[in-house]
Structure formats: structure tokens, C-alpha cells
Design goal:
The protein has about 375 residues and is of the alpha+beta class. The chain folds into three domains: about 120 residues, Acyl-CoA dehydrogenase/oxidase, N-terminal domain (Butyryl-Coa Dehydrogenase, subunit A, domain 1, Orthogonal Bundle), CATH 1.10.540.10; about 110 residues, Butyryl-CoA Dehydrogenase, subunit A, domain 2; about 150 residues, Butyryl-CoA Dehydrogenase, subunit A, domain 3 (Up-down Bundle). Helices cover about 50% and strands about 15% of the residues. It has eleven helices and ten strands. A four-stranded mixed sheet has the order 1-4-5-8. Strands 2-3-7-6 form a four-stranded antiparallel sheet, with helices on one face. The chain has a two-stranded antiparallel ribbon with strand order 9-10. The longest helix has about 35 residues. The protein is globular.
Length: about 375
């Protein structure tokens, strides 16, 4: 894929790959067992510019593009998917909406701190009864003097266990999409992060429920215009789908690498199992599909960098890449046999981590809806 990248993008990819191989991969199993990522590792990523890849330098970011962000996420996911989603949320779901809709004061207050890793952010959209149907969210923000008070519950919030700033979506008007607004909020009185949620995968990533019980924010906390919060949320998810596709590509690459290496060294029936077509063909299929997934992901990122529409292309990239990640992880487990089912090898972790890419930031069914509406427009509704 190097021929599709410019010099800067290749350099960023190599820098991320080197960091992932040296600082992440040797410790991924330990971090997953401990259900945490050391904060110094995250701050080191901030020093490298990887917590705000596409944020302009004037706000403390690296000033790079969406393709560079996708490459960083791919390399980190190849080593530890949990770390990659932590970084992806900081970049795509927190920095991005602040950069897109924030006032100059909001940008200068938060983006440099997010970029350095001084604070980490969370994206509080999903609720216990409002996942794919985000327009039905029930959290409210009611006026209180010159500010607002936020009440309600959020669920499945990445980075929520240690976030110092939250992009919160709450209802300020009537029912439906037009009644939702976005806010930048800090934890304080009237806010509680719940315990870490037990998950199938992404064990090194923090995922919690959040409770808002009259958390007060100032008048300057609204992000964008009143009633335009859901539009901001969906636009943010359009970009986030590219990073999920990148994460899926990283998981799939790790699975293919593991299967290739194991089959090259494992001996059975008088020789190495790599000589058997029953081993070769599933890995070959996964490798071919991975190349296609990566091309879809890079295409969507390139469109975004060019300022062109990319909603359907991002959905296609996420839809296909997530399926490839699940398939490649399954192939790795099958190739390793009993060892694939054992925690002695990372195959079982890749298997567990891959599935979430078909679920969050829009399920595969939602991606198909996005693509269908691009094809048929109003006739698809």
C-alpha cells in the first residue's frame, strides 16, 4: 500500500509501527489481563502527536490528515485493539467535534490539553435505550440561570472511567432529532462514572456507564447551535467509521501475521502445516480481503482529506473491514487449533476484539442503511 501514500504518511505509519512494536505489543497481554493501559504510554502518544493527529498545530495538534490518523490507528490496533480505540476516541469523537463546532475559546481551552494527554475525553451519546436510534435519547439539559443542568444516563462510554472532559448530547427541546444539543462538560457534582463494564473484548480499554444528576455547565458549554446536536453527532460518527475500519484492518493484519507465522513453524504429519492447502487457502482469502478492506479505508480517508463527501464510503469501509477482521481472527484461531483457543497465544484476544468493530459507531446493519440511502435517497426511507 506504500505507493498510495505520500512521504509524510509513510513516515507517520513507520513511526506508529515502531512505537506499537516496541512499547505496546510486548505488554498487550498484560494490559488486557489488568484491564488498563498505563497513563504514561498514552501521554507518550500525546508527545508524538498521536492524540490529536488531524488537529491544527495552532491548537496543539500534529496538523496532519485523516489518512495519517487511520494509519496510526491501524498500527496501534495491530498491537492492541483496546489502546487503538482509546486513541481513536480522543482523536475522532472528542477533538473532531470540538474542532468542527467549537468556539475559538472552546478550541483553545480544550484541544491543546487533549492533544498533550493532560486530559482525556469521552463521547457521551449512547444510552441504555438509545443506541442505533440516537434520536430517541432521553438525557435532558434544562436551563438554570445563565447555564444548564444535565440529567440522564449514558451507556458504553469509552474512556468514561478516566475522562476529564465529556462531549455530551442531551435533549434541550422537544422530541426527535431537532431537540438534541451538544455540550462540553467536566466531571463534577451531579456526575458519576460507573464501574468498568465486563466486555467480551477490548479489555485494556475503559468502558463505563455515566450518570448525570443535575450536572451544571455554563452558558459557554454548548457545542455548536442549540438543537443541532444530533447533526453534529452523526457527522462525527461519519469520520469515526473510518477509524473503526482502520482498527479492523489492524486486527485483521495481526491475525493474518499470527496464522502465517504459526503455520510456518508448526509441524504435523511429517512436516510444516503451511504446505497444506487446508491451511493456506483460508489465510490467503483473509489476506486478499484485508487488502481490499484497506483500500476502502484509505479511499474514504482520502475523500475526507480532499473535502469531498465520504459518508457512504466510510460506511462501506467499516462494513467490509469489520467483517474481514472477524473472518481473519476466526482463521487465526482455526489455524492454531487448540492453541488458538488458549490465552497462551493472542489469537483468542484478536477473536474477541474483532467482533466489536461490527457493533460500535453504527452496527453493520446501520452501515447498510447509510449505503442504501446514498443509493436511493428519499426512496430508501
Amino acid at each position: 500500500m506504500s505507493g498510495l501514500l505520500n512521504d509524510t504518511q509513510r513516515e507517520v505509519r513507520e513511526l506508529a509501527r515502531d512505537f506499537a512494536e516496541r512499547r505496546v505489543a510486548p505488554h498487550a497481554a498484560e494490559w488486557n489481563a489488568r484491564h488498563e493501559i498505563p497513563r504514561d504510554v498514552l501521554r507518550d502518544l500525546g508527545a508524538m502527536g498521536f492524540l490529536a493527529v488531524a488537529v491544527p498545530e495552532e491548537y496543539g495538534g500534529a496538523g496532519l490528515d485523516s489518512t495519517c490518523l487511520a494509519l496510526v490507528i491501524t498500527e496501534l490496533a495491530r498491537a492492541d485493539a483496546g489502546l487503538s480505540v482509546t486513541v481513536a476516541v480522543q482523536n475522532g469523537l472528542v477533538c473532531s467535534p470540538i474542532l468542527r463546532a467549537g468556539t475559538e475559546e472552546q478550541k483553545r481551552t480544550w484541544l491543546p490539553r487533549l492533544a498533550s494527554g493532560e486530559v482525556f475525553g469521552a463521547y457521551a451519546l449512547t444510552e441504555p435505550d438509545a443506541g442505533s436510534d440516537a434520536a430517541s435519547l432521553r438525557a435532558t439539559a434544562t436551563r438554570d440561570g445563565d447555564g444548564w443542568r444535565i440529567s440522564g444516563s449514558k451507556m458504553w462510554i469509552t474512556n468514561g472511567g478516566f475522562a476529564g472532559v465529556l462531549v455530551v448530547f442531551a435533549r434541550t427541546g422537544g422530541q426527535g432529532s431537532g431537540g438534541v444539543s451538544a455540550f462540553i462538560a467536566e466531571p463534577g457534582e451531579g456526575f458519576e462514572a460507573g464501574p468498568e463494564l465486563a466486555k467480551m473484548g477490548l479489555h485494556s480499554s475503559s468502558t463505563v456507564g455515566l450518570t448525570f444528576d443535575g450536572l451544571r455547565v455554563g452558558a459557554d458549554a454548548m457545542l455548536g447551535e442549540e438543537g443541532q446536536g444530533l447533526k453534529l453527532a452523526l457527522a462525527t460518527l461519519d469520520g469515526g467509521r473510518i477509524t473503526v475500519a482502520a482498527q479492523a484492518c489492524g486486527i485483521a493484519q495481526a491475525a493474518v501475521d499470527l496464522a502465517v507465522d504459526y503455520a510456518r513453524h508448526r509441524e504435523a504429519f511429517g512436516g510444516r502445516i503451511a504446505r497444506f492447502q487446508g491451511v493456506q487457502f483460508p489465510v490467503a482469502d483473509a489476506s486478499a480481503k484485508l487488502d481490499a478492506a484497506r483500500l476502502l479505508m484509505l479511499h474514504a480517508a482520502a475523500l475526507r482529506d480532499a473535502g469531498l463527501p465520504y459518508r457512504a464510503e466510510g460506511a462501506k469501509a467499516k462494513l467490509f473491514a469489520s467483517a474481514v477482521a472477524v473472518e481473519a481472527a476466526d482463521v487465526a484461531v482455526q489455524t492454531l487449533g487448540g492453541y488458538g483457543y488458549s490465552a497462551e497465544y493472542p489469537a483468542e484476544r484478536l477473536y474477541r476484539d474483532a467482533k466489536i468493530t461490527e457493533l460500535y459507531e453504527g452496527t453493520s446493519q446501520i452501515q447498510r442503511l447509510v449505503i442504501a440511502r446514498e443509493l436511493w435517497g428519499a426512496d430508501a426511507r
